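pinned: reference chain
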Amino acid sequence: MICPINSYKHKLVLALRGLGVIFALGVACSEPAAAQDAASVAKNVCAGCHGEDGNSVVPMFPKIAGLQETYIVKQLRDFQAGRRKSDIMGPIVAALRPEDFLPLATHFAGQKMKASETEDKKLADFGKLVFFDGNEDTGLPACVGCHQAQGAGHLIYPRIGGQHAIYITQQLKNFTSGERSNDVSRFMRVVGKRMTEEEIDAVSAYLASLGTK
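pinned: its C-alpha cells
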C-alpha cells in the first residue's frame, strides 16, 4: 500500500517552511507583475514544487512537463475557482492573473516529462494489462481509450505516462472518494470506483515507467 498524500501534509509544510520555500513562493505570488513572462513565473512561482522544467523530484508534487495546454489551463482555472481543492495550490493560483494561465501552460507543455523509476516490475506488468485491457468482469474500461498509448493523453485527457506513481495513486483515490471532483462528466470518479487497490497501484507503477528516459 502506498501512503496517501494527506498523511504527509503536516510534515511537508514544516519541511517547506524550513527551506524557506513557502516564504519565497509568497513573495513571488504577492506581486504577479505584468512584466513577468511565463518563464519568470515558472521559475519564481512553480519551480519550488514542480521543478524548473516541470519534472518534480518530489513524488507528492506532480510532474507538469509535457501536459496538454488545455489540461493545464483547466486545472489552473479550477484551482482559482475552488472547483479543485488544494491547501498549497489554492493560494498560489489565486495570486496569478487569468491571462497568465495560457502562457504558463504553453511553457510547461513544451517540456518533456521524464520517466520515473519502477521498483516492482511484476506489478508494473500487471498495470500494463489493466491499462490496455481494463477489466471486463467489473466493467473497468481500458485507460488507453482516453489517455492513449504511452499515456500521452489528448487535449482534455492529461499525459500520465512518466508521472510519479504515488501522485497517480493518490489522485485515483481522491476521485474514488469524491475528494477530487473536477473530472469531465464524472468519468474518473466512476472509473476509480471500479478499480481495486491492486489495480490502482499496478497502473500507477506502469505509468511511472513511461515517458522520456
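why pinned: The chain is about 55% helix and 0% strand. Confidence is low (pLDDT under 50) at residues 1-35.
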